[in-house]
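Supplementary Note 3. Input sequence used for the single-chain structure prediction.
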Amino acid sequence: MGLVEGSNHHLSARACLTVFVAGLLCLVATLAKGAENLKGVALIVGQSAYEHIATLPNPANDARDMAKMLTDLGFDARSVTDRDAAKLKRDLERFVEDAEGADVAFIYYSGHGIEAGGVNYLVPVDADMSSLKDADNALVPISAVMDDLKKTVPVTIMLLDACRTNPFPPGAELRRAPTASASPIGAGGLEPLRGAKALGSAPATENLGTVVGFAAEPGRPALDGAAGENSPYAAALLRHLAAMKGTEFGSVMRMVTEEVYLDTKARQRPWVNESLRRLLYFGVAPQEPTGDDGLITGERRQLLLTIADLPDPKRSQVELASQQDGVPLDALYGVLKALGTEKIPEDPTDLEKLLDAQAERLKKMLSERDALSTDDPEIKRLVASADKAIGQGAIVSARKFLDEAVARVEQTSGAVDQAEELVKQKRLADAAIYARRADSSALVFDYKSAASDYGKALALVEKWDDKLRWNYKNQEAEALNAHGAATGDKQALQQAIDAYRIILNFIPNGEQNRDWAITRNNMAVVLQTIGERETDTTRLEAAAQIFRDSLAVFEREKDDLNWAAAQNNLANVLLKIGERESDPKHLNEAVAAMRATLVKRPREKVPLDWAASQNNLGLALYALSEREPGGERLTEAEAAYRLALQEYTREKSPAQWAMVENNLGNTLVSLGTQRNDQAKITEAAAAFRAALEIRTRETFPVSWATSRLISATR
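The predicted structure, written as discrete structure tokens, is reproduced below.
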């Protein structure tokens, strides 16, 4: 075990406690015993078989597995399960006696726990309603145990996987003694223990500190997990705690915390209250995972540390994208790690676009996973490992596995020439591997490589399958567009346009059908991207005409969804043209097009798209107000923004809510200035202040510093 001298290390309220344990098994020579191994004792309690209140299926499993792990790490560990009040108190008294003379005393408790009147209690298996009338005797107060251990043990650790929902009826009250006053029981979770206090200037020879960990944040219930398994908290500890080498405990704590956060889909985060006068390091060297699992585990640990440093507003956007698009939260965070934290967009609208695009790619990869087939066992293994890596957020490892799969494809491709059908199936399977690597490249924002692999996949299938030929060429075009838009590479954008023109040639007899309209619409989006980088409006006007042509086809086909998308695109490009002209003609057309979009984007069917279009309408009206003085357009813009805020609420969409509040503030300032209306100026100030509650200087420095934000359109 090892402790290293350091300042009082007060951990984040989001950190997880149990990771201290293994670190204490390799204390360095700052304690009196010098460099020799120090003594650690542990008591592990699992309470499952409650007699009168709700049973818990997993604490017995948690206790068994934690006891084994702690024993393997060198603790003298004792495990007990399903203890009534008398036995549990006797267990704790005996442990206090046995711990005297030890260097580290550690208690892990899994089961029911409650809080009342600022006191935390462990709940024995024989507890019932009558226990609440004399809690200090019928239940087990925690602080007294901590106080006793601190008197004789340098380091005391208590981990409470006990934050399950209150098992007693709603409104139940607790009395510490029969004659004491009653206190309400907390609805869920425990509260910080009074026993874990800062040591201040206490001499190092007296006590090195106390650590108390909770499976969830104060006042929040922790999840028990699927029956027959471990709780999320215990599972994260078992995964990461015993697999570290020489890692400072704070890093391991963040890994465990974010593991629970991901495993519970953001519903639970561990919490820790500690005061230690030494830094703890892990010195145990257990067998590390090897092979594919080793790569995935290593990258996931780095991912967990990246998540721990991500500010809450960005977390909220990732969580929302995961929920809306139905893709794993782990994988989306892995995408951001592959991008690099320094490159994550500060503007919430840009981040939303990035997340939406990558979530769509993830959804496509996941939906096509079962359709991928090959008779090569090595390729099957590599593809399975890539799928597992994506699910764990290890995007870079996934691409490595697919690199190896492609190498395998290239090694064996020359041997497949025996029969026409065999050749066909081989080519289709090989193309799918290239396409899968292209998907993986796009997830790490290497769109150029993605476009190249989609092109290779196309070359393999164009002779055999018209549908795949279309799909791969379209994906190549999309990747070229993404690369050009991200880097400003005009040549790549032109290549995307050329690719869409080739796709148009795939349509039989040049028919102007739905596929024709979709392809032309996509080509116009690229033209618009180029046009926005040029002073001339020629390309913007060409894009507008293509959007109009697409609208006619979608209307004929009664395709309202694509009609609304094309109409929205038309409105956006008209706005871009109008902003460059003094004549309000195109801005008026943009407003009309925005309103037409809203007809086919009803609030009850697509509420967020409806809100986005209301915001875009407000932008167009605001721009038009600068050409048509009088205030009427500003009033209409204000109304549009306020409608958008009905769906873009602070609770559901904080980043979008702040964006629209800021746009509303701009409009109110202009209205107040035009009309000399102080009330409007006051409303504008309130809107800006509201936006700044989300767009703080620390989390959104660019947006915070920008006095006027005109949002990117959707």
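The two ends are 56 Å apart (CA to CA). Residues 420-443 form the longest helix (24 residues).
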